[in-house]
Write a structure and sequence with these properties.
Number of domains of chain B: 3
Largest sheet of chain A: 5 strands, mixed
Strand content of chain A: 5-15%
CATH architecture of the largest domain in chain A: Orthogonal Bundle
Largest sheet of chain B: 5 strands, parallel
CATH superfamily of the largest domain in chain B: FAD/NAD(P)-binding domain
Strand content of chain B: 15-25%
Strand order of the largest sheet of chain A: 2-1-5-3-4
CATH topology of the largest domain in chain B: FAD/NAD(P)-binding domain
CATH class of the largest domain in chain B: Alpha Beta
Distance between the termini of chain B: 44 Å
Radius of gyration of chain A: 25 Å
Helix content of chain B: 25-40%
Number of helices of chain A: 17
Oligomer: heterodimer
Structural class of chain A: alpha+beta
Shape of chain A: globular
CATH superfamily of the largest domain in chain A: Alpha-helical ferredoxin
Chain lengths: 379, 555
């Protein structure tokens, strides 16, 4: 069969798709869960099904779309309560198990109509992280800067972000604090901080350490789980935290809290809970909590600070600390925060493979150095 | 001044205009980062010389030859000369290019290029460029009318003075006055069923220009990309072949040895698409496809440099290219034709400019080389932005007569108030299927004539098109109906131009009646306009030749 014949005949096997869509009428403010059932080709993804509904059933259904190939980021929405790209979700397996999915607009953003949300708050947060390269000079260079692939790999995943908003939709921190910068903006923040050509690292980290910044993330990992592009925003936030501590930017309670965990691990092998509050919140705040602390002590909920309660295998814990410290960004500095991340390092980037996570320190130029001038190949 | 469309060309134009001191705004029916420039995968061509000895002259010659000599050689020279600095500029702004071992911008071989000249960011080059340009737009705080659907150009006192647009989020027609307007609205791949193009690629700018009397050039030149996925035409990058992938027929044969024995898989796109279609038509395809085999590249190379391709193939074809060849076929990809402009993007209308795919400068002629489209958006986006800014800064007034708004409002209301008629989808699908059938990789006189009649019939039906949604807020039912109107206009231009070009050149292949290139009669551009009665008129324009005389084109 020729191309045109196969196209013209469109003889694809079809299936009956049933789904429910949360409609929202902006004019009246009414919400309604409506049922749909229709024939669709077996290759259809969720977006194709929505198109068929809009064409043949109800032209008033509103949703965004454009590329239908997972790169433009238009069609973020929820399927059964989890954020997806409509163009990425194949319907066949869902139909095969007789499931009727519920489609709704993304969370954490105001609904404009049906499946369309107001992305304004999303973009304002992206802009708030000043997401443009600061090379440290104004003039335009005559050539490209020399940067190793390994140094650029530091921001490989963050550069994949298509700004669809799926992570923001699922962010638990943002649900309780709508001003939280959120996973997409923070991943963009790391896209800049981790770029060896950028000269504003400290300024950026200071900004991102403010209230509603990196330490307000609850580490629920929903953003990593729901990102359709593998950006892993939570890992980016961890990397920002690590980079901040490394730069001595630790005024936030979150940073102090994290640092005390590390100190505990390398000194006693146990969490030194008694000192956690004064080390994190400060002495004054700790005194205010003294009554509560004494109560806990009396009930045996916390150990006495003295003598220090040292774990039996503390040497192992210290050795582990030393090990991860030498592993740089891949270790103590924070990337290894989740089992997924750990597994990825184990499988994809064996020690000494030269690929995978590099660090700014590994860049073979001083970041932001003025570009070399002259003919290609001479530098 | 106003830039309509916010992909690579539009954003690059707006950045340049602002830096020149103009008061500029962007207007786009989708958010800038959603633009289809972001779907470009393989790369951007500039003679940086990072992977071999290269220079702009070689780039220019490859482009002239690739265009089947229909490209204007002065424009091509401008593109190739300015390309390296424009790419360095992108890198300086922060584009995340892939790097060589020396830390320079990496370059890979691409079809019909004499040197490895295609700078790339893995297989997401367009995505990287769209995002870096948007970063620069944010840095400059360029005002952006997001989700505004441009519908008509305002012509007053014989010059373009603004745009009438439908505000998608809030509803209502809005008039935006501007001393200069740049069209950067992209292509019209949605004319075809199997297309790499996004739903947004409906030729809006081309059609708007046509309606104010600006000619469209070489509209018959629609490029078919050799490697797209069935059934919808999702793009599999030429970068695969750049990295060494093979094309096989059902017999496991690298059939290109019979069509392009030297360049093989790296011949130009028109040559490979015709070869594939011939194999498929002669029964050596597999369900209307041939096979793109990446297996010998190995998992590491595929994961490092073609990660996005693997993701697309897994999601949309259910095939892991590490283990299996990908079934691919030719699909409509890129419009070489478009709004006729000079090398600064200026059209025949004072105050109106065009850049990117919607323009025809012409650097691609009858066939575009992979990697030249992104480069064109940057270089000519910049030049159009500069020229439009200069004009805007030296001229003072803008006026839009109220009657223009009132007429548009009346026309729109008539459409929205219609309660009886035909929903757009059947017209749209029939247009796209028949264009594929009758105006595809190969073209026959009788099929083109038949397609002319079909489009005429569809235009009749379109007069009664029915919009279901009567509301103001996010009425995409309305905008999709308007987009269909744009597509129908363009189809007619393509058919008129295609019938007139009685030869085979580049993407316009007529093996049955005019199998050869005919330089004596057709080394010239088709120019289509519409007259006051709405009929398409044809004219011709000479090709600008500088130093390259036409030769036989072999790969």
């Amino acid at each position: 069969m020729s191309l045109t014949e196969s196209l013209v005949r469109s003889e694809y096997a079809t299936m009956t798709v049933a789904l429910k869509i949360w409609r929202f009428d902006a004019a009246t403010g009414e919400r309604e869960l409506r049922d749909y059932e229709l024939e669709a080709p077996e290759w259809a993804c969720l977006l194709d099904v929505l198109d068929l509904i809009k064409d043949k059933v109800d032209g008033t259904l509103a949703y965004r779309k454009s590329c239908r190939m997972m790169i433009c980021g238009s069609c973020g929405m929820r399927m059964d309560g989890r954020a997806v790209l409509a163009c990425k979700e194949r319907m066949k397996p869902i139909v095969d198990r007789g499931h009727v999915p519920v489609i709704s607009a993304m969370g954490n953003l105001p609904i404009v109509r049906d499946l369309v949300v107001d992305m304004g708050p999303f973009w304002n947060k992206i802009k708030a992280v000043k997401p443009w390269l600061d090379p440290g000079y104004d003039e335009v260079a005559e050539k490209e800067r020399i940067v190793s692939q390994q140094a650029m790999n530091v921001i490989h995943k963050e550069a994949l972000c298509i700004m669809c908003g799926c992570c923001v939709s699922e962010c638990n921190s943002m649900e309780s604090d709508p001003d939280f910068l959120g996973p997409a903006a923070l991943a963009k923040g790391f896209r800049m901080v981790g770029d060896p050509r950028d000269q504003a690292e400290v300024e950026r980290l200071n900004d991102l350490n403010e209230e509603h910044g990196i330490w307000d993330c609850t580490r629920c990992y929903f953003c990593n789980e729901r990102c359709p592009k593998g950006v892993d925003p939570r890992d980016a936030i961890a990397k920002l935290g690590a980079e901040s501590v490394k730069q001595g930017i630790d005024h936030d309670m979150g940073a102090k809290h994290a640092k005390w965990f590390v100190t505990s691990a390398k000194t006693t092998g146990w969490l030194r809970e008694t000192e956690l509050v004064p080390k994190t919140q400060g002495v004054v705040s700790a005194i205010k909590e003294a009554k509560f602390a004494l109560k806990l002590l009396r009930r045996g909920k916390v150990p006495l600070p003295f003598p220090p309660h040292v774990a039996e295998g503390v040497e192992e814990s210290r050795a582990l600390y030393d090990l991860v410290k030498t592993q740089d960004r891949r270790g103590a500095l924070g990337i290894v925060q989740g089992e997924r991340a750990l597994a990825k390092i184990d499988q994809e980037h064996p020690e000494g493979s030269g690929s995978g996570w590099g660090s700014r320190a590994q860049a073979d130029i001083t970041p932001g150095e003025r570009p070399t001038r002259g003919k290609g190949g001479e530098a | 001044m106003l830039v309509v469309g916010a992909g690579c060309a539009g954003m690059r134009a707006a950045i340049e205009a602002l830096d020149e001191g103009a008061d500029v705004a962007l207007l786009s029916k989708i958010h800038p980062v959603r633009s289809h420039s972001g779907a470009a995968e393989g790369g951007i061509n500039a003679a940086l010389g990072n992977a071999s000895e290269d220079d702009p002259e070689k780039h220019a010659f490859d482009t002239v030859k690739g265009s089947d000599y229909l490209g204007d050689q002065d424009s091509i020279q401008v593109l190739c000369d300015e390309a390296p600095d424009d790419v360095y500029q992108l890198e300086n702004w922060g584009a995340v290019f892939s790097r060589t071992d020396e830390g320079r911008i990496a370059q890979r071989p691409f079809g019909a290029a004499g040197e490895p000249r295609t700078a790339y960011a893995a297989d997401i080059t367009g995505h990287v460029l769209v995002h870096v340009l948007y970063e620069q737009v944010m840095k400059r705080d360029i005002p952006t009318y997001e989700e505004f659907f441009a519908w008509k150009l305002v012509i007053h006192e014989d010059r373009c003075q603004g745009v009438i647009a439908w505000d998608l989020l809030n509803g209502g027609l809005k008039t935006i006055g501007a001393k200069t307007v740049i069209l950067a609205t992209g292509g019209a791949g949605r004319l075809y069923t199997g297309t790499t193009n996004a739903y947004a690629c409906t030729g809006d700018g081309m059609s708007m220009a046509l309606h104010v009397g600006v000619p469209l050039k070489d509209m018959e030149m629609m490029q078919f990309h050799p490697t797209t996925l069935a059934p919808t035409g999702i793009l599999i990058t030429e970068g695969c072949r750049g990295e060494g992938a093979y094309l096989l027929n059902s017999e496991g044969d690298r059939f290109l040895k019979r069509y392009a024995p030297n360049a093989m898989e790296l011949a130009s796109r028109d040559v490979i698409s015709r070869a594939e279609q011939t194999e498929i038509d002669e029964g050596r395809g597999i369900d209307g496809n041939v096979l793109l085999d990446l297996r010998h590249l190995g998992a590491d190379k595929i994961n490092d440099r073609l990660h996005g391709t693997r993701e697309l193939s897994l999601t949309y074809a259910g095939v892991d290219p590490i283990n299996e060849p990908i079934p691919v076929r030719p699909g409509a990809h890129y419009h070489m034709g478009g709004v006729d402009t000079d090398v600064d993007g200026l059209t025949s209308m004072t105050g109106l400019y065009a850049a990117g795919e919607c323009a025809c400068i012409s650097v691609h002629g009858a066939n575009r080389l992979g990697g030249n489209a992104l480069m064109e958006t940057i270089t000519f986006g910049k030049r159009a932005g500069r020229a439009a800014a200069e004009w805007a800064l030296t001229h003072t007034t803008v006026s839009v007569p109220p009657s223009v708004e009132a007429d548009s409002e009346r026309e729109l209301r008539a459409l929205l108030d219609r309660t009886d008629g035909e929903r757009p989808w059947a017209i749209r699908d029939e247009l796209a299927l028949t264009m594929h059938e009758n105006f595809g990789v190969f073209r026959r006189e009788e099929q083109m004539l038949e397609q002319g009649r079909i489009v005429e019939g569809l235009r009749e039906r379109y007069k009664r098109v029915l919009v279901d949604d009567k509301g103001d807020i996010f009425n995409s039912d309305l905008t999709q109906a308007l987009e269909l109107g744009f597509l129908l206009d363009l189809a007619e231009c393509m058919i008129v131009a295609g019938l007139a070009r009685k030869e085979s050149r580049g993407a316009h292949a007529r093996p049955h009646d005019y199998p050869d290139r005919d330089d004596a009669n057709f080394l010239r551009h088709t120019m289509t306009t519409i007259d006051s009665g709405g009929r398409v008129q044809l004219d011709w324009k000479p090709v600008t030749m500088t130093k390259w005389q036409p030769q036989e084109r072999k790969y």
